[in-house]
Every structure is written in structure tokens, then in C-alpha cells.
Amino acid sequence: LRRQGRWDEALAAFRRAAEVDPKSEVNAIDLASTCGRMRRYEEGLAHCRRAIELATSACFPSVLLGLMLVS
Question: How far is CA 32 from CA 12, 39, in A?
Fold first, then answer.
């Protein structure tokens, strides 16, 4: 959906996925990056922080958090 430019639908789908599997770092990262692309930074920051909690050895959530903080 994101590739088709259907951002609101993509965000809703990622939210549903996160509800189904709240411990998935992939879902948190997808939510964070989608929010960032939509310039919904406050929500994106929360999802970045959640992804960092879930994926302690992954660096991408931290990079994404930094990018959102400077945007």
C-alpha cells in the first residue's frame, strides 16, 4: 500500500498488524517509518522507541529515531 501511495490505508494496516502481534519489532518499525514518511513525527517517535525496546540489537530503529528528531 505504501508503494501505491495509499499512506492512510498502509498506516491502518500496520496498526492492525501491531495489535495482532504487539511484540513484533518489524511491526513497530513499519509503523515508525510510515509515520515518518507521513510527517506524523510524534506518533512515529513513539513507535521508534517501541521498536528500540523490542529489537535491542538492531540499529535501524535508533537511526530512524534520530532522523525523526531532526525533522
Answer: 12, 10
